[in-house]
Design brief:
Oligomer: heterodimer
Distance between the termini of chain B: 25 Å
Bound molecules: flavin-adenine dinucleotide
Strand content of chain B: 15-25%
Largest sheet of chain B: 7 strands, mixed
Structural class of chain A: alpha+beta
Strand content of chain A: 5-15%
Helix content of chain B: 10-25%
Strand order of the largest sheet of chain A: 2-1-4-5
Shape of chain A: elongated
Shape of chain B: globular
Radius of gyration of chain A: 26 Å
Chain lengths: ~300, ~575
Amino acid sequence: MEGNNVTRRTVLRGVAAGGGTLAVSGQAAGSSTTFDTHTKITFRAIVDAVLPETPGLEDSLGAEHVPGGLAVDLEAFLITYANDLFTFGLPYVGEVGNIPIASPVAAVLDLAAKELLAEGDNEDEPSVDRPLSLLEPEDESAWVVRFVAGTFAKLSRRDRLRAIGLLDGYELELSPVSGTVFEADAGLVGQLVVGFAEVIYYSEWEGYDEFTQPPSQREHANDPAEVQSWRQTGYPGFSDGYAALRGYVGTPDGPLGGGDVWTEIDDDGAVLVTRDSGHFRENDYDTSDYEEPYPEGA
Amino acid sequence: MVASEYDAVIVGAGGDGPVAAWKLAEAGLSVLVLEAGPFHGNEKWPKPHEDPGGEASSSIEDLSGELLDEQFTTREFEMVNKLIFGPADHERGFYFRKFPGDGAILQCSGVGGTTLHYTGNHPRAYPASIDEQGHWPIDYADLVPYYQEIEEMCEVAPAPVTAKEELFFRGAAAAGWDLLDELNVTEPGYRPQPNAIRQPDEKLHVDADYDGDFQYPEVEGDTLALGNIAGNPHPRGAPFEEKAKRASNISFVPPALKTGNVTIRPNAFVTDIHTDTWFGDDPSATGVEFRDTWSGDKEDVEAEVVVLAAGAIETPRLWKNADLPENDWVGSGMTIHFGDNVMGLFEGADLDGTLGTDTVDQFQGQDIAARFDYPGLGMLQTVGTTPGLGAILGFGASASGFTFQNDTSDAPWDTMGRLAGRELKETLAEYRRMLQILVVSDDRPHERNGVTVVPGVSDENGSIPLVNYVPSDGDKKRRDELAEIAAEILREAGASHVHRSDSPPTALHVQSTMRMGKVVDTACEAYDVDRLFVADHSALANSVGGVNPTNTGQALAARTAEKIVDRYF
Ligand SMILES: Cc1cc2nc3c(=O)[nH]c(=O)nc-3n(C[C@H](O)[C@H](O)[C@H](O)COP(=O)(O)OP(=O)(O)OC[C@H]3O[C@@H](n4cnc5c(N)ncnc54)[C@H](O)[C@@H]3O)c2cc1C
């Protein structure tokens, strides 16, 4: 990488023993509170980029489409979830055997943000006003945020996404238990902060009293009134069934379909949806004139 | 109590393991099935993710539809977390595997394996993929009787039409494709899915004014409420064996238990294969070592034959960790049906014209009920998803960055890439007027693709699998052509906006890592280790043409069970 002193490799050293502490090389030394605050600010910036508040959608789609992930505290759950995601399996120790990755993920995003800036691929100038604008009343004071916020949180929303996009080209070195280092593609980070943020947000997650409870003790009302994203997608909640059967596709003479015609699929009535089902044909087959559309190279 | 000796030990109770167990037990053999994950819907484990529960189950009386109803909540996020490959204990995370890019491997643990996620599509391989592509040492005709046996056990039948299938069929017909009505497909065309899901009660016809509560026995069969990826326990109230979706826990586990010769031991992760060298050079399998995932205790069990059915990632991993003879093809040649997603967005008024309703409502009907076949390229299938899974599978990942980074002015799609931010919210706001098509390509086995292990990079079960996948030019071209066909079908159906994900490699279907002809012989016995058989999708010699692999994996497992009896009993 030219003109860039950020290393492409960052070491996530997961010393998963003894409760799972993690150190990140290339990261300014700091107290664990500093790490926690940095992680929180960074995850807030992630959620703000992936599932933003969108006042611009009020006129076209309606007021229910305005709030984003921060309105439902998605960032807090995403941190918990990231930290419980993988087990390297220290036997007998339950959840403390999980490898907490939220803080290293935040650090990796700062590296990606620095690379974006070094390459000059950002469209907007970074600014500490951005993490400050995501502050909530009960939060740390503004000066703490100024001090701790990383480069990623200072980028504009689009530039944050661009930075995430650089991660597929990264290799991470992970050291799960034994001290042996191996590489994992940092695409994992992008998957976590984009893919997982999306699946959690649009799923039933918000509707639980407490998702971290044992499964048999979780309560879920299955009501769009309790799930912001369901109101935004129009998903009505889970159902035991729908009377949605239109019939079976078939032809007038073939074995598929049968009974009354419900509708015609093509203009000349050659393909129909019928009331009853038919069956597939156990046909003779001949593959002798098969040709490879795209043969594999020699 | 699990005995110390059996005729056969089967590693894994996933899609294929229970088929082998049933066939071997029918032949009178005593069978132990060791499964890494939990056993849902079984009275010995009333809270399978919270308490270790009982030890093993050998009676059909243990199965409970009521418990399955309780445990399979159909809530998508919760269920995916319950089912994805990891220890049963809900406090512990998934097992980590290395996979390239921002793609992922989707595999389940638990009795039923990845068929707990699967959407019940049960087509046969394309005959040409077996007979003409040069990978298989046996003929398609050899498989046909086993397909018939499996299809009968799984009650495979044409899938029902709801709004989303009707929309797809209209698009495919308008694009000039023919309707296919056969099981052995040699030409391109569209079809209803041959699904291993009982057809819905006719009371559920849109014209029949049903207003009941979709409970068994008032309704039998599928209730058209999606949810197959989340386990599908419908119809609610039905006994275990009367659940509509014939995943292997429903279709093959009950008949296996009914023989009285099968014991299933969940929460048992096999970590080693024991061998002995009696005569000549080749070692013979004599048993396995397994680890209780709750207590960590290890046990050994002996057997006349060992059958590996841990799936196409874990079977080669176990081989490598067990220090069996080196064979370059163990773990190599993996195919994943290199896939993609093409999405159509529709205007309400246009839908009203074609469907008579102004929404598609993808959450109604079966998840995947319509398909397009193209031997030589692969297949397309319609997909209905709940919004969370739809977001991650359809929009959450891309090999070409975010939509705003891609110029699509000359492309057959209006947008391409990963969606996030305002664009994501705008698109998901159209959830009820969206039709998603999954592109599934006939990728070919390449030696570079597959599973390796590195000593020292391990979890509690040994060195973890490091998975590599790089498609060839041919694989990419097959996928591109299918994506173009999908876009055209969506346009013909009236889509006002077409979006292509350009998904990164994502492994929903994983096969061919212990290929017949390379690692195992035509009876699926390892060339290098006697009495060691493979009865899961890793034994497939290629990607079976890009069609859903489970019918073929199960047919082959049934055939392998017969060969085992012929050779050793
Ligand atoms: C969302 C989704 C939808 C799908 N839909 C379809 C579909 O409609 N049609 C279709 O044909 N296919 C479908 N598939 C794919 C299909 O589910 C798999 O191809 C099939 O289940 C593979 O069967 P298998 O026996 O090879 O492996 P699996 O079903 O993965 O079974 C392997 C089993 O072995 C256990 N195991 C692993 N390691 C060990 C060990 N060391 N010791 C003990 N046990 C172990 C696992 O826990 C698991 O239960 C789908 C997959 C996904 C993810």
